[in-house]
Structure formats: structure tokens, C-alpha cells
Design brief:
Elements (H helix, E strand, L loop, with lengths): L2 H15 L21 E2 L6 E2 L7 E4 L1 H7 L4 H5 L5 E4 L7 E4 L18 E5 L2 E2 L14 E8 L3 H4 L6 E7 L8 E11 L5 E12 L4 E12 L4 E4 L2 E4 L5 E15 L2 E14 L4 E6 L18 E3 L5 E16 L3 E19 L1 H12 L7 H4 L4 E19 L5 E19 L5 H7 L17 E20 L4 E21 L7 E24 L2 E12 L2 E2 L10 H7 L4 E2 L2 E14 L4 E20 L6 E19 L5 E14 L26 E14 L2 E12 L15 E2 L18 E2 L7 E11 L3 E8 L7 E7 L5 E6 L4 E9 L1
Length: 801
């Protein structure tokens, strides 16, 4: 960490330390001038936030609403250390403290998550498609930083995030309804939604809580194509869903909570802006030039996502006199189809296959070629644990976990007219490669996953000031897949083979906590987390250059990723508990980091293992100097990089695995600040203004994006330039590093105990952030960037009863 960044973080901490907790993560709705007591379940037992002996942040639904966040992506910018790569609704990917090896893309279903995502206690994370859940009727949103392998298991090697929903309340009838409408400055499309909650008692011992919502998401990206009128706002979408939760509590010792969750997400495109597309660009003479501008893309077909999530879970708690037995059963059924316009991909392959023969015509290169990615996932998990009721000299918890996942995944690329083209090129048709007619690529990859684990954690309180926590988890998993790939683009034209991998291991944690007084806690922690390995898909050998085939071939599986984290932390309450200042220093040693490798000309992606480290600091501060003002600041600096190079036979780093290269997707510096002013119009009506500022530093999408000649197509040593459409150029350049960006959100309104009316402006200065670099055929067919909503104006009304 440079001296400049250390001084910057120290200055921030000292400045706000005069009067601060978790930025948004503890921006408490406190009475008078005392900070609210936030209760979390980061250790699978209810604990005050400031008493958890490691780095945790939490935000309530009201705090989330005040920040202007309408989804998990926007919310993540308010939490120190939490980064989410936005690939469009339903496709976000999560990283904590810079531990990431690159964006997981569409044809990598075997890659597991490095951050566990939970809806209460049900695991819902999928590395490729983290669910984009609605934020309505949450009790809080928790971020657990650093490895959580002991209590939360696989997929929490970098940390865990949890949606904690409001639970049914006995003998209380209450409800809420909320409506909103908004539109962007660069679009005529309107979005908005309506949400509702009803909590109803069903006798003295049973209650039900019903939640429903509908969101219309406006589009703000226009589609361009040669010789065709512009299609406006093609990335619109809608989200519908709800929850039904029942609480059965016959006495104080028994609590049974069954729940059903449903969500349907449908989009008509992706928030991608195209910098270059071989089928539509401004550098051409024999076709209409296309310049999509700041918020445009080149597509000839509809794109979009259909995602249906169904979840049923059952939590049961039984008090057994000094101990509590808890059982959590969860079943997820998810069907997801991702449709992408792959016409530029197929067209570029056609150019490669035809060479200079001239057999392929421009119309052949422009054949309609939609790529369908289909996932059907069914997952069952069961956790049983026994825990002491808390208090006393020794607190303990032991448990067992089982997970069973069956997933059918496949791609197909129906391209009408392609068989006739193959015949003209002197190549066999799709049938010869065991693919459906006119389908140059087809895959079917069903796989089954089984995991078993046993875990335990205990805390010894030596006295009122000193305590030690120790935990251990044993895990064992096995994954089996059937790899079927067919078509002229596939590996050798046809592959039908099994794949299997398995592993086991231990994940320990030790924490020492010292409390010199009731308002200060100092902690030291060593913890290990793990991310399970998997099976690589075979390369598309037909498309590979000889060098890429040697470099990326022969990698049938990849190993478990393990993170060993060392951490020092401090949690303090100051100024008669009007101010909170939390800070931590951490160092993570990462072995077998799972690097996402774009296999060059093969138009394939595989996972390689590498060694890396991440070190940095976090500061979170919140102050409530008076009943009118709330202030919060959070900041993270992290230096995450490769520690050991991996070269090919020519001495070039494979997939960017070079000592000193930054780990992708996470910025080095990220900060957020929020300020809220409240005042009284009348004894029954208050006004409020909330301003949130977010800064996100520069980053890379993939590790290899840092390696020259990335950023140039057609340059020496770079991917070759496709000469299609009589172009006026022979090469082009682009920016592989995603620049830093700053976003401000403003919300103001009035409220009483029964209702709240607010207006808001999000993305105040209309920042166009480049969130992820999109590529096709090693940048030769398309270069684009995923981006954010433009400046947005809106209104909301909430009623409570």
C-alpha cells in the first residue's frame, strides 16, 4: 500500500472520527442523538453489530431507500469492500476485498461463486447469475467481509452477503404499500413499480406475512444496424414477485417458519454500449456506416433474459433448555434463458472459414444467429445445528450441512441458411457434426453436485475484557458432468464424454477480541475460506490457432481456491455513542485463484489456477451530532495482485497471470458518503433531504486485459482485424481499463407516521460509467462496455397502516 493511500485513509478516519459506523451500513434511524442498536446474525446467533468480532456491515430498508439504491448493484457501492460487476439485471457478480479472478461469462456453468449470497438462511448464489432480488420489506442487508468458510461453507471464500427479510409478527395487523415512477434524462421510456406488504395474525400463535411487487424497468440503450431505423430503449424489462411467510409459534420454545418465494424477471436487452462491431461500424465504404454513440449498440436481433426463480424453505427452532436446535431446509427451482445476438460472432467465423475465396457473400456474414443459453437448476440444501443460548463463559455451536444440485445447461446457435453456406465452402453440414440442422454450435452439459460438511464454532470469555473464538469446518464435494458439444464450431466437431472432480478439506477460524472498555473492541483474526473447483469445457478446436490450442488445451479441471486471511480490527463508539468508527487492516493469501481465461481465437473460456494476494484497509464512520443530522463515510483501499507468473512456451503470460498484475473487477479505492437532514414542518410531519456520493476507482474486467497488446485489434501481436465491408481502417484501439467514476443521488420529501412522499434524482451529474468490458472472438468481432442508468428523475409514495 503506498504512503499516499495510507495517509489518505488515515486523514479520512481522523476527520470523520471527530464526529461516525458503517456509512450507510449503520446510518441509524435513531431517536434523539443516540445511534440505533443494530442486531445481526453474522455468527448464526443474534448479536449487536458492534459486538461481532470481525468486519460486518448492515443497512435497514429505510437506509437503503434513502441512499437512492433500487437494486443490489447500486446498493453495493455504499459498502466498504463490496464490489458488484453489473452485466445486466439478473447477471451481477459479487466480489469482496478485491478477491476476484475475472468476470464469469455465459459458457462457464461449472464456475462457483466466491461470495456466498443468502436470502435469510437459504443459499441462492450462482456465480454466473446472482439473483437480482427486490429490496422491499427487508429488515436489513448484511455484508460479512473476509472468509466465512467455517459457518457459511463453500462459496464464501471472500465473504458473504445476506438479504434478511422482515418476519411475520404475532398478534399484529400491519401493512405497507409503495408506488414509484421514474424516467431517465436520455430516454422517453418510463419505469416504476408498485409494492405491498400485509402482516396478519391467524390466531394467537400463527401469523402470515405477504409481500408482492411489480417493477417496470425503463430502457436507455438504442439499437443501431446498417440500413435500418434505430430501435429505441431496447434494454427495458420487468420484474414480478412475492413472498408468503408463515410463523407458527405454539410457545416460546418452538418456532416454525415455512416460506414460498417467487420471482419472474424478463428483459428485452442488455445495458451494453458498443465501441466496435464488425457488422456495423463507422469505418466502411460499401455499407451504411454505423455510429451508436454514447448509449447505443449494434444488434440485428432481439436480446434478453427470462429468469424464473421459485424457492421454498422451512426454518424450525426448538428450545431445549439452555440450547437451541435449528433446522433449515431449502429447495430452489430456477429456469433461466439468456438470448444474445451472436450474428457478429458467427459472421466473423464465416469470414475465417471462407478466407479469401470470396465464396461467402456479405449476406452470408450477416445471417441471423441468436445464441440461446439455457439453465435449469434444482438445488436442495439442509442444515441442522445445535447452539448454546448465549451468555456465560462458553458459547458454542455445532452443525451439519448437505447440498444437492442438479443443473442442466446448454447452448444452441440456430442460424438459418448455414448448412447451405457450409456446402458452398466445401465443409460438412451440421448433421455430420451431430448438431441440429443449421446449427453451427450446440452443447448440452448436465451436471450433478453433492456436498457434505460438518462445522463447529465456540467462544470462550476469559473475563469481561478478553475472549477467543475458534471454529472449524470439514467439507467433501463431488461433481459429475456429461460434456456434449456438437457443430462445426465445437471441439473436433463433436464431443461426448464424462467429466468428474472432487475434493475435501478443512476451513478453520481463530479470533481474539479485547475490550478495554464498553465502547471499544480490538480484534485479531486468522480465517480460511474456500471456493470449490470444477470441470472445464473443451475448447472450440476448429476456431483455435495452433498457439492457442497448445496454450489453453489440456486443462480438463481446475482446483479449489483457498483464501487464508489475517485481519486486525477496531470497533469504537465515541461522543456518548453519537459516533461510531470502525476500521480494519487485512492481508489475504490466495492459493489456486480461479482465473477466468479468454482462450484467444478459440472463442472459448476456461479456468486456470494461479497464486495471488490481497491487502488493504477499510474505514467506516457514522455520526449523529444532533437530532437533525446524520453523516456517514465508508472507504476501502485494497491492493490485490498476482504473486507468481505463468508463461506459455513463448514467454508470454498466460491469461494475464503475471506477477504484479492487478486482480480484475475490483477497484483499488472505493468510497461512499451520505448526509441526511431532518426537520419538523409540524408536530406530525417531518421533512428530510438525503445526499449520497459514491466513488469507484478504475478496474479491469479480466486479468489478461492488462497485457499488451490488449486495447488494439490489428496491431502486431494482437488479434487480426476482419476486413469486412470495405473498411477504411486496418486496426482500431480501445481502452481496456475501466475508468473510475463518481455517482451522486439526491432524495427529499416529507413523512408522517402513516405515509411518506419523496422525489429523487439519481446519477445527478449523468455519469456514464463503464462497468465491464464486453468482447467477442478476442475483440475481433465486437468490443463493448456494460454501463449504468443515465440521470434519473422520479417520485415515490409509501403508506403504512
Amino acid at each position: 500500500m503506498s504512503k499516499q493511500n495510507v495517509l489518505m485513509l488515515t486523514a479520512v478516519a481522523c476527520a470523520v472520527g471527530m464526529a461516525t459506523t458503517s456509512g450507510i451500513a449503520a446510518a441509524a434511524e435513531a431517536n434523539d442523538e443516540i445511534l440505533e442498536l443494530i442486531i445481526v446474525t453474522a455468527q448464526k446467533r443474534a448479536t449487536a453489530l458492534q459486538d461481532v468480532p470481525f468486519s460486518v456491515a448492515a443497512a435497514s430498508e429505510t437506509q437503503i431507500r434513502n441512499s437512492g439504491a433500487s437494486n443490489m448493484i447500486e446498493l453495493s457501492r455504499n459498502f466498504a469492500g463490496l464490489t458488484m460487476t453489473d452485466l445486466g439485471p439478473g447477471q451481477s457478480q459479487v466480489a469482496i476485498r478485491g478477491i476476484s479472478a475475472g468476470q464469469v461469462v455465459r459458457d462457464q456453468p461449472g464456475v462457483k461463486e466466491s461470495v456466498g449470497v443468502y436470502l435469510d438462511e437459504s443459499p441462492i448464489s450462482v456465480a454466473l447469475f446472482t439473483p437480482d432480488l427486490n429490496l422491499f420489506d427487508l429488515e436489513r442487508f448484511e455484508v460479512l467481509r473476509g472468509p466465512q468458510g467455517t459457518l457459511f461453507g463453500a462459496g464464501s471464500s471472500a465473504g458473504t452477503v445476506r438479504y434478511i427479510t422482515q418476519q411475520p409478527k404475532l398478534q399484529k395487523l400491519e401493512g405497507a404499500a409503495e408506488a414509484s415512477a421514474y424516467s431517465g434524462s436520455d430516454t422517453d421510456d418510463w419505469g416504476g413499480g408498485i409494492k405491498g406488504m400485509l402482516n396478519a395474525p391467524l390466531g394467537d400463535t400463527v401469523a402470515v406475512r405477504l409481500v408482492g411487487y411489480y417493477d417496470e424497468q425503463p430502457g436507455f440503450i438504442d439499437s443501431y444496424y446498417p440500413g435500418r431505423a434505430v430501435r429505441k430503449d431496447v434494454n427495458s424489462g420487468e420484474k414480478t414477485g412475492g413472498r408468503v411467510t408463515v410463523l407458527i409459534q405454539p410457545n416460546e420454545s418452538i418456532s416454525i417458519t415455512p416460506r414460498l418465494v417467487y420471482q419472474k424477471l424478463k428483459t428485452d436487452g442488455y445495458p451494453r454500449v458498443d465501441f466496435y462491431n464488425v457488422l456495423g461500424n463507422p469505418y466502411t465504404t460499401d455499407q451504411p456506416p454505423v455510429n451508436p454513440g454514447e448509449r447505443g449498440q449494434v444488434t440485428q436481433l432481439r436480446e434478453g433474459l427470462d429468469d424464473e426463480l421459485k424457492l421454498a424453505d422451512l426454518k424450525m427452532e426448538f428450545g431445549l433448555g439452555g440450547v437451541t436446535l435449528t433446522s433449515v431446509s431449502s429447495y430452489t427451482d430456477r429456469d433461466l434463458t439468456v438470448l444474445r445476438d451472436a450474428s457478429q460472432l458467427t459472421g466473423s467465423v464465416t469470414l475465417s472459414l471462407s478466407g479469401t475465396s470470396g465464396i461467402a457473400t456479405p449476406a452470408d456474414v450477416r445471417l441471423n444467429s441468436p445464441l440461446y443459453d439455457r439453465t435449469s437448476l434444482k438445488a436442495f440444501s439442509q442444515e441442522v445445528r445445535l447452539a448454546s443460548d448465549g451468555g456465560g463463559t462458553f458459547e458454542w455451536l455445532v452443525g451439519a450441512f448437505y447440498q444437492d444440485i442438479d443443473r442442466d445447461y446448454g447452448q444452441d446457435l440456430p442460424t438459418p441458411g448455414y448448412d447451405a453456406l457450409l456446402v458452398r465452402l466445401g465443409l460438412p453440414t451440421s448433421a455430420a457434426f451431430n448438431a441440429p440442422p443449421d446449427t453451427p454450435y450446440y452443447s448440452k452439459v448436465p451436471y450433478s453436485f453433492r456436498q457434505y460438511a460438518a462445522f463447529g464454532e465456540g467462544t470462550v470469555h476469559f473475563n469481561d475484557r478478553w475472549s477467543m473464538t475458534g471454529g472449524l469446518r470439514y467439507y467433501d464435494f463431488k461433481e459429475d458432468r456429461r460434456l456434449t458439444f456438437a457443430g462445426v464450431f465445437a471441439d473436433m466437431g463433436y464431443t461426448n464424454q464424462p467429466g468428474s472432480t472432487d475434493s475435501d478439506g478443512f476451513s478453520p477460524r481463530v479470533i481474539v477480541a479485547f475490550e478495554p472498555n464498553d465502547d471499544v473492541m480490538l480484534t485479531a483474526q486468522v480465517a480460511r475460506g474456500f471456493r470449490l473447483g470444477g470441470i472445464n469445457d473443451p475448447l472450440n478446436v476448429t476456431l483455435c490457432s495452433a498457439n492457442d490450442l497448445v496454450t489453453y488445451g489440456g486443462q480438463p479441471t481446475f482446483q479449489d481456491e483457498k483464501v487464508l486471511n489475517y485481519e486486525l480490527g477496531a470497533k469504537t463508539l465515541l461522543a456518548d455513542r453519537k459516533v461510531t468508527l470502525n476500521a480494519s487492516l487485512f492481508y489475504s493469501d490466495i492459493s489456486d485463484l480461479q482465473v477466468i481465461a479468454d482462450a484467444g481465437s478459440c472463442s472459448s473460456r476456461i479456468v486456470l489456477n494461479a497464486d495471488a494476494q490481497a491487502k488493504g484497509a477499510e474505514v467506516e464512520l457514522f455520526a449523529r451530532p444532533s437530532e437533525h443530522w446524520d453523516f456517514g463515510v465508508s472507504a476501502t483501499y485494497v491492493q490485490a495482485e498476482i504473486t507468481k507468473s505463468r508463461f506459455d512456451s513463448g514467454g508470454t503470460p498466460i491469461a494475464g497471470i503475471r506477477d504484479g498484475n492487478r486482480l480484475p473487477t475490483s477497484p483499488e479505492f472505493q468510497a461512499a458518503a451520505t448526509a441526511t437532514y431532518n426537520w419538523s414542518f409540524t408536530p406530525a410531519m417531518d421533512g428530510f433531504v438525503n445526499l449520497t456520493y459514491q466513488h469507484v476507482g478504475s478496474s479491469y474486467t479480466q486479468l489478461a486485459d492488462q497485457e499488451p497488446p490488449t486495447g488494439c485489434v490489428g496491431c502486431a501481436g494482437a488479434p487480426g482485424f476482419f476486413a469486412f465491408g470495405a473498411p477504411t481502417i486496418t486496426q482500431f484501439t480501445f481502452q481496456p481499463e475501466l475508468p473510475s467514476y463518481d455517482i451522486g443521488n439526491l432524495r427529499f420529501g416529507v413523512k408522517t407516521g402513516a405515509w411518506e412522499a419523496a422525489a429523487f434524482v439519481n446519477n445527478l451529474w449523468d455519469e456514464r460509467a463503464l462497468l465491464s468490458l464486453d468482447r467477442e472472438r478476442g475483440f475481433r468481432a465486437r468490443v463493448g462496455y456494460l454501463t449504468n442508468m443515465p440521470r434519473t428523475y422520479g417520485m415515490s409514495l409509501r403508506m403504512n397502516f
